[in-house]
Amino acid sequence: MDDILTWLEHPGLTHFLLLSVLLFSMGLYAILTRKNAIMVLMGIELMLNASGINFIAFGRYSTGTFDGQVITVFVIILAAAEAAIALAIVLNIYQTFNTVNVDEINKLKD
Asked: Model-level pTM?
């Protein structure tokens, strides 16, 4: 019992990788099963956050430097830019087609 408590009290690389796998698989599930464009964007954000956790964990436990944190800052900046552009596209699609379901948007207007 003490081994389990020690394993839970002192998180290691395995804990962060399991969390990252959980977040990535939830994001992938959201992308593959949802028809709403906003839910697909949320799935992409989850996947980007999972990659950020991986960068920080490997930076911390492999070299002990701040390389993983620097890369994660760039991932967060990329995610913010992606969210702003994607939401603008979703608003434009809603204005044109009156829906945000990606299955119903099958034609482009001139």
From this structure: 0.79
Q: The domain that contains 25 carries what CATH number?
A: 1.10.287.3510
User: d(Cα 71, Cα 90) in Å, to the nearest integer?
Assistant: 28
Domain tally, the chain: 1
- 2, amino acid identity: D
Q: Note whether residue 110 is domain-resident.
A: no
**What's the pLDDT tens digit per position in 66-94?**
888 899 999 999 989 988 998 898 888 88
- Residues 44 and 75 sit within 8 Å (Cβ to Cβ): no
What is the helix, strand, coil percentage profile of the chain, to 5? Answer: 80, 0, 20
> Which residue from 44, 47, 53 is spatially nearest to 90, judged by alpha carbons?
44
Report angle CA 27, 56, 6 to the nearest 5 degrees: 95
Residue 83 lies inside a defined structural domain of this protein: yes
Whole domain around residue 81: which residue ranges?
2-97
The residue type of 102 is V
